[in-house]
């Protein structure tokens, strides 16, 4: 299981320290553009088809206001444009790095 030890914003990146001693640095713009929520990525209809919605961003879309750990497996990020429904699993964060 992936363990997150610490997280902070440094400049325009999210810095993550992992239990295995490694560190990850992810640009905030990349984080927001890869938001895993249904509003950003779409969700399957009754037939299993996923239509990805058109998402528009502003400068505020890439300003991270706060983070909250969800259980022992994810972070929920709150952006300056009000968006906060994305739950970023630690696996996703490692893959984005």
Structural account:
With 97 residues, the protein is α+β, with helices and mostly antiparallel strands. The protein has one domain (4-96): NE0471 N-terminal domain-like. It contains 3 helices and 6 strands. The chain has helices spanning 28-33, 38-41, 90-96; strands spanning 4-10, 13-18, 23-27, 64-70, 74-79, 87-89. The strands form 2 sheets. It has a 3-stranded antiparallel beta sheet with strand order 1-2-3. A hairpin with a 4-residue loop joins β2 and β3. The longest helix is centred in the last third of the chain and has 7 residues, at 90-96. It is globular and about 40 Å long. The mean pLDDT is 95.
Query: Domains counted in the coordinates: how many?
Result: 1
The total count of helices amounts to 3
CATH class: Alpha Beta
Shape: globular
Quaternary structure annotation: single chain
Mean pLDDT: 95
Derived from helix and strand composition plus strand pairing, the structural class reads alpha+beta
How much of the sequence lies in strands comes to 35-45%
**Known CATH architecture:** 2-Layer Sandwich
* Major β-sheet strand ordering: 1-2-3
End-to-end C-alpha gap = 17 Å
Write the CATH fold name: NE0471 N-terminal domain-like
Instruction: Summarize the main sheet.
Output: 3 strands, antiparallel
**Portion of residues within helices:** 10-25%
